[in-house]
Design a protein that fits this description.
CATH topology of the largest domain: Rossmann fold
Number of domains: 3
Distance between the termini: 55 Å
Largest sheet: 7 strands, parallel
Helix content: 40-55%
Strand order of the largest sheet: 5-6-4-7-8-3-9
Structural class: alpha/beta
Radius of gyration: 27 Å
Number of strands: 15
């Protein structure tokens, strides 16, 4: 016994990791069953394990198994390899079987009922199929490079000076990890909560590579603007006009520091005016919404044959909300994948979107980065824990009075976004409360672009304290200092709810989200609301908890709420 104990104690973590890498390196899938892996590692570390006493062999394997299970990942030949263990789910394990586990897990599973086993097997088959379909998109960085200071980056001095002028002290977490990958030339999927610095996360690497003539195709075009036709080198696509304008503002601010020109095009304004601006400025980087971009391409106003950088901001929405045909049209006009770098930045990355994304990416050379709280590695939605969620039971004829009373209780400096589901109701609320002496402005899809711009500017500049809007303002917009979000009408689905309340509690600040709940037609939302609020550590009122077990609608699936990780907002 003494000899076996000594042998076991001599086994170090470094030895186990080295042996594990060696074993996994031989596997195409990059994963092994825990039992087989333990056996291989044990043989490598203690060659005579098989001939040693049963007790010594068991003790050695126990130590190895424990060490492997406590390690989340190993780097093998520049790729992150995840261990497939039944007791611990790991993302990105190509062709891994989630039912694989150690001896204890297998023994425990035998005691379960046949019905439950069948259900788990069916779920496992589905999960494995989905993992196989997207496995090529799940390569992690070849080396974990994290830039914790702006001086770690290769960005030019004028850019670093501009960062300092804007009050940035150090890179945000998504920037510190995304910048090295983007500058290495790899395709990138970056998932992080809104307000976390994603805009500069993609702008600065694209600007830098263009400025030093480091294009994915390897050759800088001699004349990228043929016959005065704008031919940008970089393209950033946004799902909404407001977000496109916001990105362009940052692009001008930081691009001008190193003489990178940019322009923005979007619907709702004159095509002729935008065409004139494009031909006048011949931008190196173009920010666009999908509809107007395709319109301009069909009019032969611009060319994308020399555009080697493609960025999708709010990529989940772009791929999930009907923009796929336009995106394919755009991509077909650009250089092929071998001469193009594609960057997807998003707050969520659900499985159904990943399947679509693989058609746009270099599957063999794509990195995924997930930024969130512990366990937030699946890209699913979750409510921001920095936001206090409050629910108020109110019939429709009570909401105006409840809203009035609520607004009277807020501090004078409060900045409030009120969401309603229809354009008519948005205008009604804004006008009604303006007449009551509140400073309001409104944003919805029927308003002319100059009116939307004016309203947003007034709200951002604190000239008006209450912005009433449809879901056009629920995603992407980074408005600092929003203290309260009020859902006058219940959101149409789980994602909309989470994105709405994410307009507050941003960039380390605290916020409050207040939701009016109507028993007449919001009961089907209740199970998911309870799950979302509970997962965020919120107090759930009895009137809502009462309907926790009620059948939910398709838009408010509890299953979706159960998948929520802490990775958004």
């Amino acid at each position: 016994m003494g000899a076996s104990t000594t042998a076991t104690t001599a086994i170090t973590e470094a030895m186990i990791i080295k042996a594990t890498k060696k074993a996994l390196k031989c596997q195409e899938s990059g994963s092994m069953k825990m039992k087989s892996l333990t056996k291989e590692v044990a043989k490598s570390i203690v060659p005579d394990t098989s001939s040693s006493s049963s007790s010594a062999s068991s003790t050695t394997k126990d130590v190895i198994r424990k060490s492997i299970k406590e390690s989340s990942k190993f780097t093998v030949d520049g790729k992150m390899v995840y261990l497939s263990s039944g007791s611990t789910k790991r993302k990105n394990s190509s062709n891994s079987q989630h039912t694989d586990g150690d001896d204890d897990a297998a023994a425990a599973s035998e005691t379960k009922t046949k019905k439950k086993v069948k259900k788990e097997e069916a779920t496992t088959t589905t999960q494995t199929t989905e993992k196989k379909e997207v496995s090529a998109l799940t390569t992690e960085p070849s080396s974990t490079i994290i830039w914790t200071s702006f001086t770690d980056t290769p960005f030019a001095a004028p850019v670093q000076s501009a960062l300092s002028t804007e009050g940035f002290i150090q890179p945000s977490e998504i920037q510190s990890r995304a910048w090295p990958v983007a500058l290495s030339g790899k395709d990138l999927i970056a998932v992080a909560k809104t307000g976390s610095g994603k805009t500069l996360g993609f702008l600065l690497p694209v600007f830098h590579r263009i400025s030093i003539k480091d294009l994915p195709g390897g050759i800088m075009p001699v004349n990228s603007h043929n016959n005065n036709t704008p031919s940008p080198l970089g393209l950033i696509i946004s799902p909404t006009r407001e977000l496109a304008i916001q990105i362009h503002g940052e692009a001008v601010k930081f691009g001008s520091a190193i003489h990178i020109s940019s322009e923005v095009i979007y619907g709702g304004t004159s095509v002729q005016e935008q065409t004139k601006r494009l031909r006048s400025s011949l931008p190196q980087v173009l920010i666009a919404t999908p509809g107007r971009l395709c319109d301009m391409m069909e009019r032969n106003v611009l060319r994308l044959a020399s555009c080697n950088f493609l960025v999708l901001d709010e990529a989940d929405r772009m791929l999930d909300m009907g923009f796929e045909p336009q995106l394919k049209q755009v991509v077909n006009a650009m250089p092929d994948k071998s001469r193009r770098q594609t960057l997807f930045f998003t707050a969520t990355w659900p499985n159904n979107v990943r399947k679509v994304a693989k058609t746009f990416l270099r599957q063999e050379d794509t990195v995924e980065i997930f930024i969130g709280e512990e366990g937030a590695n699946d890209g699913e939605l979750a409510a921001n824990k920095a936001v206090t969620q409050t629910f108020i039971a109110a019939q429709d004829d009570e909401k105006d009075k409840r809203l009035y009373d609520l607004l009277l209780t807020l501090d004078e400096g409060s900045s409030v976004v009120i969401f309603a589901n229809t354009k008519r109701r948005v205008d009604f609320i804004a006008n009604t409360f303006w007449q009551e002496g509140f400073s309001t402005c409104a944003v919805h899809g029927d308003k002319a672009q100059h009116e939307r711009d004016s309203s947003l500017k007034s709200f951002v500049n604190k000239q008006c304290s209450i912005l009433v809007a449809t879901d056009v303002a629920a995603r992407g917009l980074d408005i600092k200092g929003v203290t309260h979000v009020i859902n006058f009408d219940m959101a149409r689905d789980v994602e909309s709810y989470v994105h709405r309340i994410g307009r507050t509690g941003r960039a380390g600040e605290l916020g409050e989200a207040i939701t009016f709940w109507n028993k007449d037609y919001d009961i089907e939302c209740s199970p998911a609301l309870v799950k979302i609020a509970s997962n965020a550590g919120q107090v759930v009122p009895d009137f809502l908890k009462k309907y926790e077990k009620t059948k939910s609608s398709k838009q408010w699936k509890v299953a979706a709420a159960e998948k929520l990780s802490a990775s958004i907002m």
